[in-house]
Every structure is written in structure tokens, then in C-alpha cells.
């Protein structure tokens, strides 16, 4: 499960100490978990929050007086909701632990150990989402079964369901074929009774094989007999199925004369499965094969390998060959792949210039060797395409498919993530995710990324995109937010979420901040030279709050470029200021001498965000994007936005709403009195500052 800003944990914290509760929220946010907390101070408020708002979890102090733990458990139990309660304790006591478990608490959390809080909370959130997913899937399955029943009943194909050789379901076409008036006439009858006597022994062998769990043949020819004794040649098609929770076989039975020429039908089906340019399997066919492999993994604990593959610098290769040679290039790559993989490996064209390989019954070592053999087969060989000799390298992202990741969407997501990461650090390499041995691949990936980031800082390989902040009230002024990107080896752009966590772990955020700030000041100077007074908003990280040299660097660059400091606006996440208040205050005082303003982003998801403004004089607040999701249709969020705007106006702070996605949200923001709006609905981020303000 992924934790991040786009998925907020709705957390009820029952604790007499607001400082202790705020410390927990801050710890969660520092760990990358977006939190939308509430802290009820009375039993009635707790009851109201449970009834009126969706919640994910309750974190209740063992000795809370405002809402005692016993009352918390009673009210949660009475609500009938799947709302896990975690109990905060200072120390473990066997008797108290058993008592809390008996009351219905899911887990006990050691308050003084934030690592334990994080571990338990993540585990419970994963379990909660799994239960919710199961309920959704169960409801969807019931609806799908209902629709399937309706389709089977109305189908012209004769269809029956067989359990242990007996009929448990048959549609009207099946009954009509054999001359029965209703299902009661055939219910419980053996399928053998509808097979001609001379074919019974052979058919018994088939049923015995099926009873042992062997896979049914996709097609079986026999001779059937109707209730009046009429014989006819028939073809049966078997599919594993379930009916009312029982494993069974679905049988589609057709008269022989109604069946197409089997050879022609087989050839037609084969052609439908192929990509016409490469002769490899097409994407839909490959996905079915992957689903079968995943199903086998879940049922039999087998292990398989999936590889996603792209030729490096594809756009550059096409420039050399000409756009009309795209099919020739793809076909040449496909042929080389086909000649390199094993006889039992499945190869497909998965996208325009992306390929996929599924290797069955392969452990991590075998999948790694296959990935390396594919990489080497291209790196060490010249390929012919459209009368050109090309040396092509590959980027490969892979996943070791096992019980820990037996989900098609997760498998493809991890493989794609590995592929993009490989492309981002230069290509001609493979990155294989193994859920059972994550550390092995992770160390190699991180090392490559650290080297890549150091090189990007040293050689100016970062790129800035710009998104306008549109004023909702008053005269328009020109202001953009700067958004950092990394130029990939293939000419594409790598998004910051891919590399910033690694940069933070390895102490590179300060260097990146310095690059962005310096670049922003030069851009403001460039705009001044064409008589455009443009303000740029720049994100900085907590690392910069502890870097005294950054203050001097900002002052120096403003002076060199002759830039008015008021045109540079810095923003820091609310949670980072809260956990490093003294450093933030000193930094703000320092840059204020140059006229530079500092504001708060990701604002509003703490327990009492406006309390922070009594200690930190932010020039603006940027409301966290989680408040924009479904804003137009959620009264609770609309009320929160109005509160933010009202309190900010009282304090003389400007407000910014980011990630605005629709006209309804814009209407809410305008009527609430929000000062600026930002988002793809207004203008997407891009490499140019070309928005028409005014």
C-alpha cells in the first residue's frame, strides 16, 4: 500500500494533551503519511465525529480523561463501523494489555517509540484497506454473478454447470437442445446420461481426470443423446467456474454441424492474439497469460518473472531512421528479443515501443540472468533496421512474481516503476523488484540514483516548469510556482517524487534547494530585462533551514542579478516548520532583510494549524491539496475552506488553493474569499511562463 499526500489518513486522536497529539501527527507526516486528524475533547464531540464524518482509525490514550477508553470502545462498537482502535500506552503491563484486548482494542502502541507507532499504524491501515477492498469486491462479485446469470439465461449457446458430474444449472438453450421442459427435469441428472452409450466409457475417463483436479480440455468431441433418444455429434467446451460458492465446470455444448472448421477457427484465434508488426503476442493476450500466472502463484505458490523492456533513446533512434521506419525498428527489436528468450518464455509487444517477457517457474536468480542476457544481447550486437546498422541498448524493469505480490496491477506498477527508474539513471541496465529480497535490488537502485543526482547538480541537468497562480480578487499580478524536474537520459523528464526521497536520505536536498533558488533568481532577472515584473514561488526543504550558507547565497545572488527580493517567494511545508520552529524563525528573519517572503505549504492538516502562525509569521498559507479532492460536492471541506479564508483574513495572510480541478471548486474558492488558485483546471505546468494574466 502506498502512503502519501494523495491519500490522507482520517485519524481520531483521543488524548488529553494537545502537544502530545500534535507530536504524533507531526511524526506521521515526517514519515510521509498525510494525516487529516481530529481531536475530540468530549464524549459528545467524539460521538458526533464518528457519526457525521468518515474516519479510518482511532488512536486513544489509555488513561485519557476527556473521553475514557471504555467509552471510546462502547461508542465505536455501537456505531457498527469497521473502525479499528489503537491504544496509546507509556509502558506495557500484562494485566492492562489483556483488559484492553478484551474491550476490543486492535493493537497497543508505545507512545514514546515513534517507530513502533508508525509500524503498527501502517499495518492496521493496510489491514483496514484490505477489508474494505474485500467488501467492495464481494459486492461487485455478487453483481457480476447476477449479470452473468442473466446473460447465461438469455444466451443462445447451450450452457450447463456440472458439479461432481451432476447438473446444477442449465439455461433454456441447453434444455431445448435435449428436449427438457424445465430445469427440474434435469436437476441432479448425471452428464453421463446425455452421452451416447458407446461413448460413455471414454467420457467416464474424462470425468475421473477432472475429479482429480486435472485441467479440463478446452474442447472435447463426443456423441450426445436427447431425452427422446435422438443421437447427434457434439462438441463440449469446458471452463473452470464457481456456482453459489461451489467449484464446478461450465459446459458449453454445441451440435457438431454448428461448429466451425476447427483448424480454421484455431488459426483465426492465433491471428487474433498476435501483434501484426512484430509477430509477437499482443497486449491483451499477454495480460491474460499474466493473469493466469498470477492465479497459479496464488493457488500453488509458484514463482514467475515479468520484465518490461524499452529500447533506450527511442526518439533519437527514430530521428536517425525517419519516422516512417518506426515499424521496422520495433520489428527488429522484437526479432532480437525472440531469438534471445527461452523456448517457454512468453514475449509480447506491450506498447508502442515497449515489450514484455513472462518467464514461468523462474526464481530471482533465473529472472535476473534472463534480464542480463537480454541487455547483453543488445549492448553487444549491431541490429539491422531499414538499411541502418544500429547499436541499441535496453532499459529493463522487472518483478519477481510471488505470493507477496500476487496482484496484476501491483506487478505492472512495480515493473513500470523499475523501468522508469532505469531510464532515469541512463539506461542499459535492468532493475528487478523482488518482494522477498527487496534490499538487494534497492541498494543497487539507490546507489545509481545518488550518482545520477550528484551529476545532475554538478552539470545543470535539472529543469524548471512553471504553473501560474491566478488571483481571484483584486488586480492581476504575474506569479508562478516553480516545479522541479530532472532531465532524463532519453530526453524525457523525471518527476520529483521519483528522486527527492533518495536525495533526502543522502543529504542532497540542500544542494538541490540551492540550485533551484539560484535558477529562480536568474529567471526573475531575465524577466526584468524584458520589463516583466514576475514573482516566482520556490519550494525549499527542511535541510535549508539548517544551512546558514544558503542565506548568504540568496543575498549574494539577488545582488549580482540586481533582483528585487520581493519577487522571490519561498515556501516550506507546515510540518517541517512545526518540527524545526527555531530554525524556520531564524531563516525567515534572515531572508526578510533582502525583502524575500516565506510562506507555508501543505497547510491545514495539523490539529491546530493556525496556532503555528502565532509563532511563525508566514506571509501566505497554501492549503493542502487533500482539501481540493471532491471539494465541490463535500460540504465538510467547503466549510473548512471558508474557515481557512476567514482566519487568514483576520491575521492579514494571503491564501492559496492548489490542485484545483473543476469549475465547482473555483466557485467555492471565490465565494470563500481565497486569494489565489492554482491547478490543471486553470493552467497546466509547462516549460514557459506564458500565461495571460489579466
Automatic annotation (TrEMBL):
Q: Which residues form the GGDEF domain?
A: 302-435
Sorted alphabetically, which SUPFAM superfamilies does this protein's record hold? CheY-like, EAL domain-like, Nucleotide cyclase, PYP-like sensor domain (PAS domain)
All copies of the EAL domain together span 446-694
UniProt cross-references to SMART domains, sorted A to Z:
EAL, GGDEF, PAS
- Which protein, by its recorded name, is this? Diguanylate cyclase (GGDEF)-like protein/PAS domain S-box-containing protein
Amino acid at each position: 500500500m502506498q502512503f502519501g499526500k494523495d491519500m490522507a489518513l482520517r485519524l481520531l486522536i483521543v488524548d488529553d494533551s494537545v502537544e502530545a497529539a500534535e507530536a504524533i501527527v507531526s511524526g506521521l507526516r515526517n514519515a510521509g503519511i498525510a494525516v487529516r486528524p481530529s481531536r475530540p475533547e468530549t464524549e459528545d464531540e467524539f460521538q458526533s465525529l464518528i457519526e457525521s464524518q468518515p474516519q479510518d482509525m482511532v488512536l486513544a490514550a489509555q488513561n485519557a480523561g476527556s473521553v475514557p477508553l471504555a467509552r471510546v470502545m462502547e461508542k465505536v462498537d455501537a456505531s457498527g463501523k469497521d473502525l479499528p482502535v489503537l491504544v496509546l500506552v507509556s509502558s506495557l503491563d500484562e494485566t492492562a494489555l489483556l483488559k484492553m484486548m478484551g474491550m476490543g482494542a486492535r493493537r497497543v502502541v508505545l507512545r514514546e517509540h515513534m517507530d513502533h507507532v508508525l509500524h503498527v499504524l501502517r499495518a492496521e491501515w493496510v489491514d483496514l484497506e484490505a477489508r474494505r477492498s474485500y467488501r467492495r469486491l464481494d459486492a461487485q462479485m455478487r453483481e457480476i454473478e447476477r449479470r452473468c446469470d442473466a446473460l447465461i439465461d438469455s444466451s443462445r449457446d447451450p450452457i450447463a454447470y456440472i458439479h461432481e458430474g451432476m447438473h446444477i444449472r442449465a439455461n433454456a438453450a441447453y434444455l431445448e437442445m435435449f428436449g427438457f421442459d424445465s430445469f427440474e427435469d434435469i436437476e441432479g441428472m448425471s452428464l453421463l446420461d446425455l452421452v451416447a452409450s458407446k461413448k460413455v466409457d471414454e467420457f467416464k475417463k474424462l470425468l475421473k481426470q477432472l475429479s482429480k483436479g486435472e485441467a479440463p480440455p478446452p474442447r472435447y468431441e463426443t456423441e450426445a443423446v436427447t431425452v427422446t433418444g435422438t443421437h447427434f455429434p457434439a462438441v463440449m467446451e469446458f471452463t473452470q467456474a464457481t456456482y453459489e460458492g461451489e467449484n464446478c465446470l461450465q459446459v458449453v455444448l454445441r451440435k457438431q454441424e454448428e461448429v466451425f472448421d476447427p483448424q480454421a477457427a484455431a488459426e483465426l484465434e492465433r491471428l487474433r492474439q498476435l501483434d501484426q508488426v512484430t509477430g509477437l503476442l499482443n497486449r491483451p493476450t499477454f495480460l491474460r497469460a499474466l493473469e493466469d500466472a498470477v492465479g497459479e502463484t496464488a493457488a500453488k505458490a509458484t514463482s514467475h518473472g515479468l520484465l518490461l523492456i524499452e529500447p533506450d533513446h527511442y526518439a533519437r533512434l527514430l530521428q536517425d531512421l525517419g519516422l516512417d521506419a518506426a515499424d521496422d525498428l520495433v520489428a527488429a527489436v522484437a526479432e532480437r528479443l525472440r531469438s534471445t528468450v527461452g523456448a517457454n518464455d512468453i514475449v509480447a509487444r506491450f506498447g508502442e515501443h515497449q515489450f514484455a517477457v513472462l518467464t514461468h517457474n523462474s526464481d530471482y536468480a533465473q529472472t535476473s540472468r534472463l534480464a542480463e542476457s537480454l541487455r547483453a544481447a543488445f549492448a553487444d550486437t549491431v541490429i539491422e533496421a531499414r538499411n541502418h546498422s544500429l547499436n541499441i541498448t535496453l532499459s529493463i524493469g522487472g518483478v519477481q512474481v510471488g505470493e507477496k505480490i500476487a496482484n496484476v496491477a501491483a506487478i505492472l506498477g512495480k515493473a513500470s516503476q523499475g523501468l522508469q527508474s532505469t531510464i532515469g539513471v541512463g539506461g542499459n541496465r535492468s532493475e528487478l523488484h523482488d518482494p522477498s529480497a527487496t534490499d538487494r535490488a534497492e541498494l543497487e537502485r539507490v546507489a545509481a540514483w545518488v550518482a545520477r543526482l550528484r551529476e545532475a547538480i554538478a552539470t545543470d541537468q535539472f529543469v524548471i516548469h512553471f504553473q501560474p497562480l491566478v488571483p481571484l480578487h483584486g488586480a492581476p499580478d504575474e506569479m508562478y510556482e516553480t516545479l522541479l524536474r530532472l532531465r532524463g537520459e532519453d530526453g524525457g523528464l523525471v518527476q520529483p517524487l521519483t528522486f527527492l526521497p533518495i536525495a533526502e536520505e543522502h543529504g542532497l536536498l540542500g544542494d538541490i534547494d540551492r540550485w533551484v533558488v539560484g535558477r529562480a533568481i536568474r529567471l526573475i532577472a531575465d524577466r526584468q530585462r524584458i520589463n516583466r515584473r514576475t514573482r516566482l514561488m520556490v519550494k525549499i526543504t527542511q535541510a535549508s533551514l539548517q544551512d546558514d550558507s544558503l542565506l548568504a547565497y540568496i543575498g549574494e545572488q539577488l545582488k549580482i542579478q540586481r533582483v528585487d527580493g520581493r519577487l522571490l517567494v519561498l515556501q516550506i511545508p507546515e510540518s517541517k516548520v512545526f518540527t524545526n520552529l527555531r530554525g524556520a524563525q531564524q531563516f525567515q528573519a534572515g531572508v526578510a532583510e533582502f525583502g524575500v517572503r516565506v510562506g507555508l505549504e501543505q497547510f491545514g492538516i495539523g490539529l491546530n494549524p493556525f496556532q503555528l502562525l502565532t509563532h511563525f509569521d508566514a506571509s501566505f498559507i497554501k492549503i493542502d491539496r487533500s482539501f481540493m479532492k471532491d471539494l465541490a460536492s463535500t460540504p465538510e471541506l467547503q466549510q473548512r475552506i471558508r474557515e481557512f479564508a476567514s482566519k487568514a483574513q483576520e491575521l492579514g495572510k494571503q491564501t492559496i488553493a492548489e490542485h484545483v480541478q473543476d469549475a465547482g471548486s473555483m466557485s467555492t474558492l471565490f465565494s470563500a474569499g481565497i486569494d489565489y488558485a492554482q491547478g490543471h483546471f486553470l493552467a497546466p505546468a509547462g516549460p514557459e511562463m506564458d500565461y495571460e494574466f489579466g
